[in-house]
Amino acid sequence: MVHTALDVRLTVTTVECFHKSQRVASHVRSAERGRHTTVAAHLPSSHQRYLAWSPSRLIQWADTIGPATAAVVNTLLTRRRHPEQGYRSCLGILRLGREYGPRRLGAACHRAQALEAFAYKSVQSILKTGLDQQPLSEPIPTVPLPSTHDHLRGTTYYQPHEGGV
User: Fold this and answer.
1) What residues have CB less than 8 Å from 43, skipping those under 6 apart?
2) Which domain, by its residues, includes 65?
3) 151 in a domain, yes or no?
4) Total domain count for the chain?
5) Cβ(15)–Cβ(27) under 8 Å?
6) pLDDT 10s digits, 107-152
7) Cα separation of 121 and 127, whole Å?
8) Of all residues in the chain, what percent carry a pLDDT higher than 70?
9) Radius of gyration of the chain from Cα atoms?
């Protein structure tokens, strides 16, 4: 029924969904404003398997690979309004450890962290291109400019002069 228009009947206590006048779903309406609720049976089977996961479980798993991996997973989960929306990306990153090994995945996550590229595609690209095996370039240090200098003219230099342009 994906992408199928449904009719919805809302009461104070119930949400009912109808397709061609046949009720296809019904569940208790949440009293919390602005919060979503999900009935596990209404989720696609591909999503139901994530119900047993929690953000802390994913972060702990990532931490077994290394602190950079845990940091990337933690950032992916905390940047989402609902952490569950980041589960697939996190699991994808952790699955990359099977193909590339934990050492390379940790190095890729370290680079992703340095680049602030917190996405599955970024970590995957770092691994595919072998950037995880290259040293991170050191940032070029910046020297602060002095507030006074012999060659600085100051604000009075730019004031209009008497009698001319």
Assistant:
1) 51
2) 50-133
3) no
4) 2
5) yes
6) 999 999 999 999 999 999 999 999 999 998 877 677 787 777 677 7
7) 10
8) 85
9) 27
Distance CA 64, CA 75 (A): 16
- Rounded Cα distance between 121 and 130, Å, is 14
- The pair of structure tokens assigned to 85 is 């929306």
Assign 35 to helix, strand or coil: coil
Tokens describing residue 70: 């845990």
Structure tokens at 59: 């972060």
Contact status, residue 74 vs residue 93, Cβ threshold 8 Å: no
Residues 74 and 102 in one domain: yes
Statement to judge: residues 73 and 125 lie in one domain: yes
Angstrom distance (rounded) from CA 45 to CA 59 = 24
CA-wise closest residue to 69 among 60, 81, 82: 60
CA 73 to chain centre: 8
CA 85 to CA 32: how far, in whole Å?
20
Per-residue pLDDT tens over the stretch 1-36:
678 899 999 998 898 999 999 998 888 888 777 766
C-alpha–C-alpha distance, residues 141 and 146, integer Å? 16
Give the span between the Cα atoms of 40 and 48, in whole angstroms: 6
Exposed/middle/buried for residue 120 (C-beta within 10 Å: 0-12, 13-18, 19+) = buried
